[in-house]
Design goal:
Blueprint lengths: L2 H7 L3 H14 L6 E2 L5 H4 L6 E6 L5 E6 L1 H7 L17 H13 L3 E9 L4 E13 L8 E14 L16 E5 L14 H10 L1 E2 L14
Parallel strand pairs: 1-5
Antiparallel strand pairs: 2-3, 2-6, 4-5, 4-7, 5-6, 7-8
Helix pairs in contact: 1-2, 5-6
Length: 217
């Protein structure tokens, strides 16, 4: 997927376009976003909907920052929590694989999915993750996430809703070319890798017009 294709896919093209504008000003030669280089005046309107993650050596995707809109929806403290804690165990491997690949390539990762919250609300969410380092030359271990769109599609009774939502198959997911192409599987990669890649990139739009699967924010 190209950035232009993602702009056509999202229901919030102005927000995503603004993110790409900030990315263009803050990226380094590797294609990674440098947090300290973000044009903060331009970036300010997006702050309430961002998440910052760090991939740790123990394969955790740890929340470092979460915007107020994200915190309001989840209604729990997030700093220091592993994002994978909110992912259904059967889907953790593919989520971790996608994030690791986005860092190593580097490239973006765009997702559309349904998420169920403690209030009983089920939202159709769109989010993008961009590989990020804190300063020029520092290790590339982080992500800037932006929650682009979050319309409520239905309500369930709170009693039937888990305290924290979990990940499901979702509606759509794709890597985004940030100028270095898209990840290509090696001919000699394992069957496990091929399966994870197929699970990380998909389009279930027709079957998920009213999403019921649960997913990560």
């Amino acid at each position: 997927m190209t950035p232009e294709q993602s702009l056509h896919r999202t229901q919030s093209p102005k927000k995503l376009s603004l993110l790409y504008e900030c990315y263009a000003q803050a990226k380094d030669q590797s294609g990674a976003l440098v947090k300290d280089e973000l044009p903060m005046r331009t970036f300010a309107p997006l702050m309430a909907d961002i998440t910052l993650f760090e991939l740790t050596a123990s394969n955790q995707l740890v929340y470092r920052v979460a915007g107020q809109n994200v915190l309001d929806r989840m209604n729990i403290p997030l700093r220091g929590r592993d994002m994978l804690d909110f992912v259904q165990p059967d889907f953790r491997a593919r989520v971790l694989y996608a994030h690791k690949l986005a860092l190593s390539h580097p490239c973006g990762y765009f997702m559309v999915f349904g998420a169920r919250y403690p209030t009983g609300g089920v939202r159709r969410l769109e989010t993008i993750r961009l590989p990020m380092r804190d300063t020029k030359g520092s290790p590339l271990t982080g992500f800037l996430g932006l929650n682009l769109h979050g319309e409520i599609v239905r309500y369930d009774t709170p009693e039937a809703t888990p305290k924290t939502f979990i990940a499901g198959k979702g509606e759509f997911s794709s890597f985004v070319d940030l100028g270095h192409g898209l990840p290509v599987l090696a001919d000699d990669c394992s069957e496990e890798t091929r399966l994870l890649h197929a699970q990380a990139v998909f389009d279930h739009s027709d079957r998920h017009a009213n999403p019921t699967d649960h997913a990560i924010d």
